Amino acid sequence: MTKGDIINIVADGTGLTKVETGAVVDGVIATISYALKKGDVIDIRGFGRFKLVQRKQRKGRNPKSGEEVLIPARKMPVFRCSRDLVGQVNAPFEPDDQFELDK
What we know:
Layout: H1 3-14, H2 18-38, E1 42-44, E2 48-55, E3 58-61, E4 68-71, E5 74-81, H3 83-90
Antiparallel strand pairs: 1-2, 2-5, 3-4
């Protein structure tokens, strides 16, 4: 599923235009990115948590040459899903189920 697919589904479910829905989706993504850059943790109840973790410097290997390289320390965004999301994903899937947005 792509961002365009998400926009189409949400637009169909809410009655908003695809342009309006695209602006909302872009706004949500930009807000999450900005909050992570600031170091904030983003909790979306029933979905999961986005946060940053600090990765240590480590040794790696260039797969093409086999040469050992030093991978610098860096911040990495991580996502941990909620129990609700795990339950939904592991529930039996019926191909004829219709997706509906909660309004």
